[in-house]
Amino acid sequence: MLSRLMSGSSRSLEREYSCTVRLLDDSEYTCTIQRDAKGQYLFDLLCHHLNLLEKDYFGIRFVDPDKQRHWLEFTKSVVKQLRSQPPFTMCFRVKFYPADPAALKEEITRYLVFLQIKRDLYHGRLLCKTSDAALLAAYILQAEIGDYDPGKHPEGYSSKFQFFPKHSEKLEKKIAEIHKTELSGQTPATSELNFLRKAQTLETYGVDPHPCKDVSGNAAFLAFTPFGFVVLQGNKRVHFIKWNEVTKLKFEGKTFYLYEKKIILTYFAPTPEACKHLWKCGIENQAFYKLEKSSQVRTVSSSNLFFKGSRFRYSGRVAKEVMESSAKIKREPPEIHRAGMVPSRSCPSITHGPRLSSVPRTRRRAVHISIMEGLESLRDSAHSTPVRSSSHGDTFLPHVRSSRADSNERVAVIADEAYSPADSVLPTPVAEHSLELMLLSRQINGATCSIEEEKESETSTPTSTEAEALGGELRALCQGHGGSEQEQVNKFVLSVLRLLLVTVGLLFVLLLLLIILTESDLDVAFFRDIRQTPEFEQFHYQYFCPLRRWFACKIRSVVSLLIDT
């Protein structure tokens, strides 16, 4: 029996699990890992497949069974982190956006960042004014279909491609005009480099929005960028705090705190798990962008009082070390196989860029995704939250360049429309999204997925009981989780009770130790050394013995009184 148990245990440890990782070009990489394989092992396999050396900017994202997003921790077991049934599905994404993407050493790294920012542009996280949007889209066209050719590109050819959540005819004409007249002769690498340089100047570059509520119950989006902590609320950037001005990040339950030199910002996440994820993202981003060396990284605790809270430590290299390491790379640039961009035949369809492979034998094909397939691919988005453009017609969010020199510059107007990523108000991207749920989500947030959906929404609205139920669920998910005064009082009372409990426990331990020292006959070296000190002898004869006689007298008097009665 023992041998069977041991063999079964060894088989369990040796069991292999299938992992599928969705890459930035929507291709998939599949491998098998052992049960005790760490996240670092899987990440190294993936980077070897991509022939990627500047890998510190990237990470692997997944969604747990409770629909909460996480970054895979490289020092922990993959199987234990995912907590779901195999096969496992994850996503390869940019985790730390380079402060200057054009300064990346290798073209393969720039290309991967290009694919990520192109996704951000499509899903509405990277927002900009119309002229910038047209230029960025024209760079994408030039990189993926080359120079304008009248024989291959008929009138209105730019309308066949989907760059943003919403297009207008005026914007499409502007994209085609720039592509025809200004970008001729640029190679794919040059166009991608120019795209990165332009994207890096935009207000929402590197933003991965975390939906929260402020203390007044107003919706807000929190994000960490290469330059600092950002809060987007309504149509304004209400806070921008540079990393060197952030003194502490803390969370307790659903409440997130950011400490600056003069103020404390408080926000409320939808769930405790979402708040912990927000806190961990903040700790990692601050360490990566702020510190000079990875040796300066310290374990951070979220605890407010005594034993409550979580502990977390960033385990990677910091930005400065990554740049220094990149400068030492000396190898032949790896081959990048780009596939042409496949035009979409209808507005609601989605086209996700070229197929990437740094291995020549790897099969490459461009993907043309219908709206239903698109929703399937969007669920991959442990990172990719599909979001609407807050624009109407051809107006995109204008780019604002401002720095927080003083308190009067904290509020920067982003646009006339609110920054409102539609699905970011959900706790996580939900794998079970259906077409009806996605459309209803967009309608609740005041947006349509495309021109065709906009026309349909004008003629009909969901009136069925099922649609109303779905709407109710979405609205419930969007409800604020702000702390009430009663919750604050309860937290204070619990803190006081914990303090009293710990104090009483310490006093009890001290009293027990005192009784052992004075009354027991234990001849232990530790106790003997204490008893022989002059201080203890003075305490014993001047204080403890009189106090003991007083207690004994009182006890005798009480006992005699009880006997008499």
Brief characterization of the structure:
The chain is of the alpha+beta class and 565 residues long. Helices cover 41% and strands 14% of the residues.
Structure description:
Residues 340-362, 380-402 are annotated as: Disordered. Residues 17-293 form the FERM domain. It holds the Pfam family FERM_C. InterPro entries: Band_41_domain, Ez/rad/moesin-like, FA, FERM/acyl-CoA-bd_prot_sf, FERM_2, FERM_central, FERM_CS, FERM_domain. The chain crosses the membrane at residues 496-518. This protein is of the alpha+beta class. The protein contains 16 helices and 17 strands. The protein has helices spanning 2-14, 39-50, 78-82, 107-123, 130-145, 169-181, 188-200, 272-290, 319-327, 371-378, 435-444, 451-459, 465-477, 485-519, 525-531, 534-564; strands at 16-22, 28-34, 58-63, 69-71, 88-94, 210-213, 219-224, 228-233, 236-242, 246-252, 255-260, 264-268, 300-301, 311-312, 350-351, 368-369, 412-413. The strands form five sheets. It has a five-stranded mixed sheet. Strand 3 and strand 4 form a beta hairpin. Helix 4 (107-123) crosses helix 7 and helix 5 crosses helix 6. The relative contact order is 0.11.
Q: What are the defining features of this structure?
A:
alpha+beta, five-stranded mixed β-sheet, five-stranded antiparallel β-sheet, 16 helices, 17 strands, 14% strand
